[in-house]
Design a protein that fits this description.
Elements lengths: L5 H7 L2 H26 L4 H17 L5 H10 L12 H20 L2 H21 L8 H10 L1 H18 L6 H14 L7
Organism: Aliidiomarina iranensis
InterPro entries: DUF416 (IPR007338), YP001051499.1-like_dom_sf (IPR023381)
Protein name: DUF416 domain-containing protein
Length: 195
Amino acid sequence: MARKTIFQQIRELPFNHQAVLAAYLCERMLPNYDLFSASTGFGDAKTLRGALNAVWDKLAVNKKSDWQRWQEKLEENTPNEQDFDVLGMFPAIAACTALSSLLQGIEDKEGSPLLDVAKISQGSVAHFLELGECAEIDNVDERAEAIAEHPLSNYEIEVQEAMLGFLQETAVIDKELVREVRGIARDEGISNLGL
């Protein structure tokens, strides 16, 4: 039997496990937004941090939050493609989109938006490489292969698989586990783009 893809495995996780994984992946995308915001002066990185902190609090101690209000604030801080001509805009948009999916999943208690976070994270790495290092490769197949074999792409998949494996071995999501996963993301100190 064929090995299940990472997305199939995420889909099979219990909801709380999916939520922790999605929050972890958002934590790894947030520095991309911070860098974009600092370099362009657009948006308030504290808003994204606040929204993600609210999710961590919900996962750790079931703290209630106004998810719709966070969505509105997030929308106000999402860059518009037409307004910027810098490569860092796309990872910033991806960070906002992933966080929005996470908030939606938490609010609706629905796993599908949480799975989307993993897809967005992988996609943001591929898009960053496509527009950056691999942009000079004209042949579409060669470019796709270069992106797939790039160390950043491999690192993203390895990180997702490692956290997925860790969560698959974990029966219960409790306050300590949430704190541990959050700490792992912060201690890595680099974003999913290696920044």
